[in-house]
């Protein structure tokens, strides 16, 4: 009988140990198990958004001199193009790109790059070795008619961008500063030290793009995205850790696309100051 109890106890112990190991594995696999995250949004990469008018005037003077040599914003570039056919329309994209690698700004939503394998222009997923950042003039034509033109600066829309109809009549004009629409609202804690408080991207009079709010020590406090004036996707709040690490405080889920009907935002998860999960919504 004692042998029977010994075997039963052993089986129970092994079962409990196996369950504990399985629980630990699930915890490790759960991205919400810890609020501590790897973040490239620390102050070393904080955006400088004080626009320099004198710099723009100097660039205009040099533009004509360097265009013939494919030198744009001080860099030697190469020319490229893509070709597509949709129904009976031939679409060409003519662009310049740089072989100089640069880490894309984490604050800009759309970073344009040339995928050399697929021979196409993309706006996300850039990695060194996979392609090249667009840098310099860009032009898109449909059946040999220019429908869009502008400039890029290390993959970011820069200066004046124009849209035309099929008869080459100007339909729209926008101005950018290294990826930020010039209408964007920027608040500073201290403009003399470039200490940004809040960045609200504005285009066509509506919020459009990535939103950021910062603590006064330059650490990111809130991140999120706007589409057509509506909050979309996951908005994240962070604890102020004195720039030592990024710890999520709360995540709020908004509609995935603007103007979605019957969607109510909800808190997806919350963490304490040490990064311990304190709440997670059951889906």
UniProtKB/TrEMBL annotation:
Signal peptide: 1-20
Top-level lineage group: Bacteria
Keywords in alphabetical order: Signal
Keyword Signal belongs to the record: yes
Name of the protein in its database record: Uncharacterized protein
Organism: Algoriphagus machipongonensis
């Amino acid at each position: 009988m004692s042998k029977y109890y010994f075997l039963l106890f052993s089986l129970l112990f092994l079962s409990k140990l196996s369950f504990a190991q399985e629980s630990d594995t699930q915890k490790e696999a759960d991205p919400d198990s810890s609020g501590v995250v790897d973040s490239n949004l620390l102050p070393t990469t904080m955006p400088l958004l004080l626009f320099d008018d004198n710099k723009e005037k100097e660039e205009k003077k040099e533009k004509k001199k360097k265009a013939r040599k494919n030198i744009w914003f001080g860099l030697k570039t190469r020319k490229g193009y893509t070709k597509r056919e949709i129904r009976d329309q031939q679409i060409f994209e003519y662009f310049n790109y740089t072989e100089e690698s640069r880490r894309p700004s984490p604050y800009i939503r759309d970073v344009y790059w040339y995928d050399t394998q697929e021979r196409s222009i993309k706006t996300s997923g850039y990695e060194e070795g996979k392609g090249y950042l667009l840098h310099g003039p860009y032009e898109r034509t449909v059946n040999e008619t220019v429908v869009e033109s502008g400039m890029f600066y290390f993959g970011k829309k820069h200066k004046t961008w124009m849209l035309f109809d099929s008869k080459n009549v100007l339909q729209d004009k926008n101005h950018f500063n290294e990826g930020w629409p010039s209408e964007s609202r920027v608040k500073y804690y201290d403009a003399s030290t470039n200490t940004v408080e809040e960045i609200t991207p504005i285009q066509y009079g509506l919020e459009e793009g990535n939103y950021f709010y910062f603590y006064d020590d330059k650490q990111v406090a809130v991140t999120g995205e706007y589409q057509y004036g509506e909050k979309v996707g996951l908005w994240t709040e962070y604890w102020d850790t004195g720039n030592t690490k990024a710890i999520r405080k709360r995540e709020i889920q908004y509609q995935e696309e603007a103007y979605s009907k019957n969607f109510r935002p909800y808190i997806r998860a919350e963490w304490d100051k040490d990064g311990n999960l304190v709440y997670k919504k059951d889906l």
